[in-house]
Amino acid sequence: MKPREFCCAWFHATPEAEETRGYRRQCVKLLAEVIGLEEDTVDRWGSGLNFPGMPSQYENTLGYALTIKQMLEAAGSQRSIFEAVLEQKKKL
Prior knowledge:
This protein is an all-alpha fold. It has one domain (3-91). Helices cover 66% and strands 0% of the residues. The protein has helices at 3-11, 15-18, 23-35, 39-43, 59-75, 79-91. The protein is globular and about 40 Å long. The two termini are 28 Å apart. The mean pLDDT is 91.
């Protein structure tokens, strides 16, 4: 998943929201947190929202993170079941 697509889906951003002040900074912070890198590293991937210098190896990570977020949102009140599964996975 490309970084622009990921941020747009994560934040439920409209094209207008993508143009607001501070949106790119939010994306940098999110990408850094999800991938596990420093914000400065992500920021150096290029200007704009496409982050053209992002190594392609991180595309799968972004896709997985978005899938997990969507699953948690869909789980609603059943979220504790999903968290219990994750906890059991850690023990394996």
